[in-house]
Design brief:
This protein is of the alpha+beta class and 384 residues long. The protein contains 11 helices and 19 strands.
């Protein structure tokens, strides 16, 4: 193995990057095959740290962003018990303040959660050649490090699956054809249970906002043409690279979710961070038995800005792998995204131009992760 050089301000400070750890960890033996040849170049806000690997591997290097370490763990995340008689009020309050809350007593069987986590980890621990049969994403299927098609990168591998039986994807079929019926069953059982919970959450939200009819938020999600999707994200540990950089490696860069609502569950590895109103990033304590609910961009528009989509990101861990499962509840492609009439005060103007979900989704997919995508659809001050 040829030497690796770290260059900071053009001065070499390290001659070897130890990659043996991956090879010695049985759990990640296959992941080592995935990441061993692809050591990233670090794109820092100050100095540049470049990791040069073997010449044959240079073509496969990736630009993975880093950020300054954040030690602030936020213990003020609102917690909502779905069976609490005051749940509707608590949900609205949390979404107005943070665009985010933790949901407990949710009713999704732990059996479904555990089974899907087990099957997902089996998939991500397969050899790279096996996983590649389900990629590259179109957008469904298996992806590695590349997030979208506009240059965003992260220390991540993932599976993106459609939840609408009317939408077929050859890549999705490949995942299940190659990985037994038990994986499909685990995904289906989990998604159906999470959907039922999500419908209940948004209907309680509608009650709290006094929206009429009560199904104004759940109807687009229940629609047979709903453009919803499901994502399994795997963030392998990265001990060597993070130790060398002295910074945190970005697993999934900062962004808001474009859909109506996102429902996230992860294992007990930390990494998720949200951006508060005071412009600080804080870490969300993990809880493998609970769900975290995100307000999406579409819901922000439907409430005319009363509920705000939450900006969030995921940092890679230096020791443990993180596995997260996210259901993104989206409306049908032809659904008009406009503020709900029952929420608008007399004489209140919409803050946003009228658009369809297809138009917003198309625009979002042309943007970078960190872009403020709703900005293109806001009315100007003069227009108001």
């Amino acid at each position: 193995m040829s030497p690796l050089y770290i260059v900071s301000n053009a001065t070499p400070i390290f001659s070897y990057l130890n990659t043996i750890t991956f090879l010695l960890q049985p759990l990640h033996s296959h992941l080592s095959l995935l990441f061993f040849p692809y050591f990233p170049l670090f794109s820092l806000q100050t100095d540049t740290m470049v990791v040069h690997s073997q010449p044959t591997a240079l073509d496969h290097c990736s630009l993975i962003k880093t950020c300054k370490p954040t030690t602030s763990v936020f213990n003020g995340i609102p917690v909502v018990n779905l069976r609490d008689p005051e749940a509707k009020t608590l949900i609205v309050k949390a979404c107005e303040e943070y665009g985010f809350f933790k949901l407990v007593n949710h009713g999704v069987p732990m059996e479904f959660i555990t089974r899907l986590e087990t099957e997902a980890l089996k998939f991500f621990n397969f050899p790279q050649s096996y996983k590649d049969k389900a990629g590259p994403p179109d957008p469904f299927g298996y992806g590695c490090k590349m997030i979208g098609s506009n240059g965003d990168m992260g220390w991540i591998e993932y599976l993106l699956l459609n939840t609408n039986p009317q939408i077929t994807s050859q890549k999705t079929h490949t995942v299940f054809r190659e990985n037994r019926e038990i994986f499909r069953s685990a995904v289906d059982d989990y998604i159906q249970a999470v959907k039922r919970m999500t419908f209940e959450v948004v209907e309680l939200m509608a009650d709290g906002l006094k929206i009429e009819p009560r199904d104004a938020l759940s109807r687009p999600l229940r629609d047979e043409k709903s453009d919803s999707c499901f994502r399994l994200n795997h963030y392998p540990p990265c001990p060597e690279l993070q130790a060398l950089s002295g910074r945190n490696l970005i697993g999934f860069g900062e962004h808001t979710d474009p859909q109506i609502i996102s429902v996230l569950r992860s294992n007990n590895t930390s990494g998720l961070q949200i951006f508060l109103k005071d412009k600080t990033w804080v870490s969300v304590p993990p809880d493998h038995a609970s769900f975290f609910i995100n307000v999406g961009d579409a819901l922000q528009v439907m409430t005319n800005g009363r509920l705000r989509s939450v900006r969030h990101r995921v940092l890679a861990d230096s020791v443990s792998s993180r596995l997260s499962m996210i259901y993104f509840g989206g409306p049908p492609l032809n659904e008009k995204i406009v503020p709900l009439a029952s929420l608008m005060a007399k004489g209140e103007e919409s803050l946003y131009k009228e658009f369809t979900w297809w138009e917003y989704k198309t625009s979002a997919y042309k943007s970078r992760l960190g872009d403020y995508r709703l900005g293109l659809f806001e009315k100007t001050a003069s227009g108001l």
